[in-house]
């Protein structure tokens, strides 16, 4: 399997059928791994995803793929006046499933329809962001634990297009507060990365609310600088896999009239990781 670098991180791989151990190693080394122009059924896509670990169905269950609840449909397309998928999925920097006690190992997107303009994903390297902190800041956050909940601390307006996808009352009842270290050791590579300092982190354990917010906002501004970012463009049939323990990511807004559809699968870390 040959790899083509996309930037300071990220890689395109040319062989979707390569031995899985090669794909596994390339994924954790690249943080974002892309296979272009793959032809997959929902079943084949899910079977490939399961090799990375256990899928976790998204709490927004009304847009699960029929017969395959582990696949979430992301789409701005409507059929008979009703949306076929989730139209906006996180147009702000965040980490998938950071609001769960056992968070996500990786997220996969399989691109089915590509808009004529936009629809890119932005990634921010949180290994590099941590390495780029001052020694004093590293000491300050070394043992700090952030408090996470479903949502986006920078936008709580449920009518906003950039807010976290709105949950029903029943779905909200499933969400609880969870704890994750701010400077978190990656469960596979062992490297330290900033973890979910943008998005679901609303406070810091044992710290006054205003002080915690100020710290998290400072870390977010640092972690999402352009020098840490990669912009990924999609083609039809692309499979994109990213490492949630080492990255922040953000969707970008598209024209609602310009069709875009992706299938998303999110894999959980192993418990205790």
Task: Explain what you see.
Helices cover 19% and strands 29% of the residues. With 273 residues, it is an alpha+beta fold. It has one domain: 4-Layer Sandwich (Double-stranded beta-helix). The chain is globular, with a radius of gyration of 18 Å.
Furnish the topology, listing elements before pairings.
Elements: E1 3-5, E2 11-13, H1 20-30, E3 32-35, H2 42-50, E4 64-65, E5 68-75, E6 78-79, E7 82-83, E8 104-113, E9 121-125, H3 126-131, H4 135-141, E10 145-148, H5 169-172, E11 178-181, E12 183-185, E13 192-194, E14 201-204, H6 209-223, E15 229-232, E16 239-243, E17 247-251, E18 261-268
Parallel strand pairs: 2-3
Antiparallel strand pairs: 1-2, 3-16, 4-5, 5-18, 6-7, 8-16, 8-18, 9-15, 9-17, 10-11, 10-14, 12-13
Mean pLDDT: 91
* CATH superfamily heading: Clavaminate synthase-like
Our count of helices gives 6
Q: Report, as a whole number of angstroms, the end-to-end distance.
A: 29 Å
Residues in helices, as a percent range: 10-25%
Assign an overall shape.
globular
Biggest sheet features: 8 strands, mixed
TL;DR?
By secondary structure, the protein is α+β, with helices and mostly antiparallel strands. It has a single domain, classed as Double-stranded beta-helix (4-Layer Sandwich), CATH 3.60.130.
């Amino acid at each position: 399997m040959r790899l083509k670098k996309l930037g300071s991180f990220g890689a395109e791989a040319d062989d979707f059928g390569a031995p899985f151990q090669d794909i596994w190693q390339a994924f954790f080394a690249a943080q974002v791994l892309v296979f272009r122009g793959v032809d997959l059924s929902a079943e084949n896509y899910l079977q490939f995803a399961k090799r990375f670990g256990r899928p976790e169905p998204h709490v927004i269950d009304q847009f699960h793929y029929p017969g395959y609840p582990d696949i979430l449909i992301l789409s701005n397309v409507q059929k008979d006046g009703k949306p076929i998928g989730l139209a906006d999925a996180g147009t702000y920097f965040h980490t998938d499933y950071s609001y769960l006690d056992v968070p996500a190992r990786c997220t996969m997107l399989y691109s089915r329809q590509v808009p004529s303009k936009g629809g890119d994903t932005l990634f921010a390297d949180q290994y590099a962001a941590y390495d780029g902190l001052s020694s004093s800041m590293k000491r300050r956050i070394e043992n700090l634990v952030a408090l996470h909940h479903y949502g986006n601390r920078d936008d709580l307006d449920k009518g906003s297009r950039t807010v976290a996808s709105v949950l029903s009352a029943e779905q909200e009842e499933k969400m609880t507060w969870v704890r994750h270290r701010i400077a978190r050791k990656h469960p596979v590579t062992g490297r330290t990365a900033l973890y979910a300092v943008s998005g679901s982190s609303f406070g810091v354990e044992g710290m006054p609310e205003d002080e915690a917010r100020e710290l998290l906002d400072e870390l977010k501004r640092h972690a999402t600088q352009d020098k840490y970012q990669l912009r990924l463009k999609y083609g039809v049939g692309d499979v994109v896999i990213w490492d949630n323990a080492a990255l922040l990511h953000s969707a970008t807004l598209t024209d609602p009239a310009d069709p875009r559809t992706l299938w998303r699968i999110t894999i959980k870390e192993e418990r205790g990781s």
